[in-house]
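Hi U.,

Before I forget, here's the chain from the pilot set. I'm dumping it here mostly so it's searchable later in email.
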Amino acid sequence: MSYVEEQLKYLDGSAEQQKMDSILAEAHRLVHGVRGGDYGHPYHDFSRTAKIWSAILGVDVTPEQVALCMIGVKISRECNKPKRDNRIDIAGYAEALDMVVEFQASHF
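Structure:
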């Protein structure tokens, strides 16, 4: 079993597991675990958000731009007050962005 597989075998998000996770392993667990179930595939989630932002801003926003803007929010928060959660979310949004790009490449 690889290191990442070992780290990802606990998908319950327990405090013990969170202590064991690297930032990348925790981000992967969150994106592909409970949050994925809660929000759906990032392409669909970010497409909905893009439509809302497009209506508010009066310009077309893409699912990729949603992911990049969310990374930007987390970078801003990290600059103000560095903490692990920001860095986990940056990695998670990067993973989600990759999933959006892969989804589009295979469906369009």
